[in-house]
Amino acid sequence: MRKKRRKRSVVDHMATRLRVSPSRILLLFGETELSPTATPRTLKLGVADIIDCVVLASSSEATETSQQLRLRVQGKEKHQMLEISLSQDSPLKTLMSHYEEAMGLSGHKLSFFFDGTKLSGKELPADLGMESGDLIEVWG
């Protein structure tokens, strides 16, 4: 990323890549939300600094019933985190496919784990007692 490149261009790029509205993209440096005018220079970023990209639930998803869960899916690398909304009665294969596509990993052999248990994709969040904010780990 160029030193003078504004955050807005990064948000637009990520929104296009993840096929979501730019208004749903949140960039974080540590625990701090980045302002739209932030640049690597104003943030004093170094080569090894990491900016996290989070996809927020759309307003229509936010107004749905409490049956919707917001699950965090985390790959081996810190930047491979994605938050996905899923209903309690949707098979986890839906979440797995969405993660693979969003991370550009379709066709890769990935294993998904919840609380140390390998998931097949046939499970339902309700059957596993999942709650919003729960973490699913990805290896592969």
UniProtKB/TrEMBL annotation:
PROSITE patterns: UBIQUITIN_2 (PS50053). Residues 67-138 form the Ubiquitin-like domain. Gene3D superfamilies: Phosphatidylinositol 3-kinase Catalytic Subunit, Chain A, domain 1 (3.10.20.90). InterPro entries: NFATC2-Int_DNA_Repair (IPR052324), Rad60/SUMO-like_dom (IPR022617), Ubiquitin-like_dom (IPR000626), Ubiquitin-like_domsf (IPR029071). CDD domains: Ubl_SLD2_NFATC2ip. SUPFAM superfamilies: Ubiquitin-like. This is NFATC2-interacting protein. It comes from the Eukaryota. The lineage of its organism: Eukaryota, Metazoa, Chordata, Craniata, Vertebrata. GO terms for cellular component: nucleus. It holds the Pfam family Rad60-SLD. Keywords: Nucleus. It comes from Spermophilus dauricus. One of its GO terms (biological process) is positive regulation of transcription by RNA polymerase II. It is found in: Nucleus. Its main location: nucleus.
